[in-house]
């Protein structure tokens, strides 16, 4: 855990460097693994106040010696608690208990939420994070007219990654290398060969997609790749399927190219294959982490989807959205790897690195890729050469992989903070940078407005429906652009509001005319 703590850019501490004395033990005869036992005991001690916020834990070596277990047992327990947000590494000074003021204790058996949940002031001491303002940290500040709340806000809307923690040395090195190259005078419609090689290797390692540089085109992002595919494949009036609820930009891109956009239903696992019409020219889907419901398309359904595409002649456009970030689940193969001749794979660095990079990829069968390249040439479309060179350096040196590993751990802590408070209300939390909370339809609007008044910005499911009567109502909660502390505070506000509106729903039937 000491290695983990020093591998992250974390705030310095002024707390004493003495460790708390932990009265812990593990039972070698118990069926549970020793690391799990230790994690459970530490978690319980932090819940009941035996171990307090800010206290330093013993080193893995010292605690292993105290318990007479291997250091690996302690390391695994610490790593799990760190991922859940219970522990906080401090650079150069060890492992500390995180701020537990917004953790909700386990509910005593037989008591309901109303009798156990502490008042808002007890769980959320205030939205102000401390002496250093959130505006200095680069977080948004709400206008005075936004929900009646002026000042710093907690933005829990989906779609944005964390861009305030990156390897500055690697970043500068990549852009210096790009600046050392002369300007290009004839952009390649396929992209720089150097970056295409690096992306092919990245896809092979990260997504088990066996492609070569000749199968990869460098685009400016998912929307750009989608537009190029639409301009190449579609004629006015062609029918195109888009998930509903789903990514509104995809719908807009196809409509702008004159296609008839068909809403295709999704459930908790992803697109419903049996509901797909047979006359679609193209189907756009997000199987790695459906946006916004959060499902992962199971392998049997993936196979049925590809069988449908082969039978109907449709092209499946796979947006590999959020595939880089998975929690507690093994990765599923990309659709493209199951049928490279029928699937176009789109990806981007906007979520894994930063939205303003403007670099992504399009993987397609050779004939289709050549047709897309001709379309791109005709449209004068191109991807920035210096940006491509810089991204190639980040990939070749392994800097992007290291950044992804670091951010997976950081996002896992934020996701765990949401699940810790909202529990079974949360769905779609196995991957990505957002989760969903299903709520009664009538409660969504008032709850969202009340949260905005408290300085917490939320997204509602209705924004992502395209037509007909929405089957699911609720909130889409993003945790990419908010810090761990902001996520904890924001979700505590949300938990209080859910309790309030749920109680209002419970008493509503008794109200007379």
UniProtKB/TrEMBL annotation:
Keywords: DNA-binding, Pyridoxal phosphate, Transcription, Transcription regulation. It comes from the Bacteria. Residues 32-100 form the HTH gntR-type domain. Gene3D superfamilies: Type I PLP-dependent aspartate aminotransferase-like (Major domain) (3.40.640.10), Winged helix-like DNA-binding domain superfamily/Winged helix DNA-binding domain (1.10.10.10). Residues 107-159 are annotated as: Disordered. Residues 138-147 have a biased composition (Low complexity). InterPro entries: Aminotransferase_I/II_large, HTH_trans_reg/aminotransferase, PyrdxlP-dep_Trfase, PyrdxlP-dep_Trfase_major, Tscrpt_reg_HTH_GntR, WH-like_DNA-bd_sf, WH_DNA-bd_sf. One of its GO terms (molecular function) is DNA-binding transcription factor activity. PANTHER family: HTH-TYPE TRANSCRIPTIONAL REGULATORY PROTEIN GABR. In the C-terminal section; belongs to the class-I pyridoxal-phosphate-dependent aminotransferase family. This is GntR family transcriptional regulator. The lineage of its organism: Bacteria, Bacillati, Actinomycetota, Actinomycetes, Streptosporangiales.
